[in-house]
Amino acid sequence: MKLLTHNFLSSRFLKNVTTGYPLKLTIEEKNVVEAEIDVNFLKNVMVKIDYAVLYEAAKSVGEDENLPSPNAIVDIDSLNEQQLKQLHRVLVCLDVVIGSLECPETGRIFPIRDGIPNLLVNEDEVS
Amino acid sequence: MLLQLLSRFYFFVFDRLICYHLLKIYSAQFKIRFMNLGYVNDNDGAVNNAIRENGVEESEAPHIGLYEKTLSLHPQYPSLNDCRLLEVGCGQGGGIDWINRSHPSLTSVTGMDRVAIRDSIVTGDAHDLPFKPSSFDIVINIESSHLYRNPQLFFDECSRVLSKGGHLCWTDLRFDGDEKQVLNQAEKAGFKLVSIEEITDSVIRGMEKVAQRYDQILLTAPWYIKLFGDTFRKTYCAPGTEAYVKREKRYWTACWVKK
Fold first, then answer.
1. What PANTHER family does this protein's entry cite (chain A) (predicted)?
2. Of the four listed, A117, B10, B221, B235, which is most buried by Cβ atoms within 10 Å?
3. Residue B123, domain extent
């Protein structure tokens, strides 16, 4: 599972959950596949995601070093090479292979196996 | 009446408990990456160009044709630049691979299905999409919504996860006349219709090509798959099956914009 996917995921479908976002990420195994940096892609993706959530997810998998701070608006053109590389790494190269996602409101755990997050629940858990 | 109900129940159980799980196990062995009936139309320049330009295996061309036909109703097609796309009911993931290849300018392509077999796919339910509001710019849904227990919930969820101005690109079959229900459900969910097209004839041509391949696969399949041979043939509406002969259903493709 890419951290970009994590950025969209929510457990709001659970009973008594209002936003269910962001899901707390824990990992047991990750995989990194190198790819060429595409700065235009980074620019486009940054306006479409919640960067603070991406930053926290990267932190939870030990990949936050060199990432720009989430406290200010991240302007791709002002990032140094190391920051760009790390942003590219967490958005494009990194896959969570085994881990879990936790609902921030109920603590319900969703497993990630073989890179697939499983957010299917029993009927009696749905609102 | 009782027989009809039993038959529907059998197909419901077959879809949920047998078909998809067997495909999960055997899809790689039999190179089955798509599950739709296919679309073949020699006069559809946009679809045929996309297939030709991206180099497609002949056996997969009808399936890919249906994806491309569905996307082609999007007002910005073929330039779907900077959009985040979600496929609800992505099956084995052949469609998301194709869309990544044919539309590389998309920002992201995410698949979701009840039975996920590989990464880039999220396991989830079409009635309770596991995504935050306004996460996507395009939702695509191919030949899947007729299986949902509550299509209204599906349309409501698509509307919720789409950003304002986002598009739902949908294709599916319905009994003749039932397409009006679909239009009502989409409108009730907050969508405005961009366009709708009946594509039954092109899908029948697609079915004929697809069935030839699947019939060959069935011949070499293990005995416990052959046991369900007739049911599989009915599932892909092979020539000779009731659905193929009676043709009570029409096939539609539509695009809506979120108001």
1. MULTIFUNCTIONAL METHYLTRANSFERASE SUBUNIT TRM112-LIKE PROTEIN (PTHR12773:SF0), UPF0315 PROTEIN-RELATED (PTHR12773)
2. A117
3. 2-204+239-258
Question: Which value, to the nearest 10 degrees, does the dihedral of the CA atoms of residues A41, A113, B30, B172 take?
Answer: -60
Q: Say yes or no: B154 contacts chain A, CB-CB below 8 A.
A: no
Residue B233 within any structural domain of the chain: no
Question: What is the chain A residue with the closest CA to B82?
Answer: A44
* Distance of residue A114 Cα from the nearest chain B Cα, in angstroms: 7
CB atoms within 10 A of CB B104: 12
Domain total of chain B: 1
**Residue B237's pLDDT is what?**
72
CA distance B169 to B153: 16
- Interface check for B67 against chain A (CB to CB < 8 A): the answer is no
Q: Which helix (H) or strand (E) holds A52?
A: helix A51-60
- For chain B (259 residues), the mean pLDDT of every run of 10, in chain order, is 72 70 70 86 93 88 96 95 95 93 93 85 96 98 94 98 98 92 97 97 90 80 77 73 76 97
Report the residue of chain B nearest A121, measured CA to CA: B124
Contact, A85 vs A65, CB < 8 A?
no
Q: Give the model's pLDDT for residue B249.
A: 85
Question: What is the nearest CA distance from B132 to chain A, expressed in angstroms?
Answer: 5
Q: What's B38's domain CATH number?
A: 3.40.50.150
Q: Which pLDDT score is estimated for B16?
A: 67
pLDDT, tens digit, 9 for 90 and up, residues A6-49: 999 999 999 999 999 999 999 999 999 999 999 999 999 999 99
Nearest to B40 by CA among B242, B210, B248: B210
Chain A and chain B share a number of CB contacts under 8 A equal to 66
Q: Nearest C-alpha of chain A: how many angstroms from B197?
A: 31
What is the CATH code of the structural domain delimited by A3-120?
2.20.25.10
State ipTM.
Answer: 0.95
